[in-house]
Amino acid sequence: MSLNGKSAVVTGAAKGIGRAITELLLLNRAKVALLDVDETAGRSLKEVLDRQYPPERTLFLSCNVESEEQIKAALQKTAETFGGIDILCNNAGILNEATWEKTVSINMMGVIRGTYLALEHMSKLSGGRGGVIVNMASMAGLGPLPGCPVYTATKHGVVGFTRAMAVASTASGYGVRFNVVCPGFVQTDLFSALKTNLGRFSNMGDATEQLMQHLGVISVSEVAQSVLEMVTDETLSGRACCVSPKGRRYVDFPSFAQ
Questions:
Q1: Segment 214-228, tens digit of pLDDT
Q2: Catalytic residue numbers?
Q3: Is the Cβ–Cβ distance between 201 and 147 less than 8 Å?
Q4: Cα angle, residue 231 at apex, residues 17 and 118 outer, rounded to 5°
């Protein structure tokens, strides 16, 4: 899948992994709508990008993924501006065990909400061109992260939702591929503050720190490269890719038939 002229939406686009994904998609000639709740960071990034690319190739939209109204409006504006939507990266997420309801709302419900609303523009059943949706999970979507049971649950949910949607898309004829990225520890603000956001599990901070030191830390660009592969390789659907200092590997899951 060539990205030349394709239109993409990235949530949580202003910083960290979302910014890296945005920059890589633009480098590969896509048009990108940057969705983020942080207006200051989002507008600042838009200004930076406008010095590198034609301004009409990017669009910043203030958007809280907890709000169906805001996501719906942002997707509609993107479709009107870019002439449709081909790619969605559900990247927005938080890690805070003290505010676990918000963690579930953003990490899990935000992904589901964004996916369903994007399908109204992307699905061939509703007049769309098809495309690809890549969701951001975590290694915590494949196994437990010490001190983060709610975060772990949300990321397991993202992995399961993505795989089930890939099956549903094939069976229903949406024409949309679904994939999920499961990074290890990434050098972002989220993980820099990890130990202070464990809430009632703060006693497990040292264990989490030890795991981080054992596994190592990767850069946002390494995660973005995995997203790019999942977007451009049209043979990939229903796949989960684990990204760690050892590289990228696709995860095999047991099936009901086994």
A1: 888 899 999 999 999
A2: 151
A3: yes
A4: 85
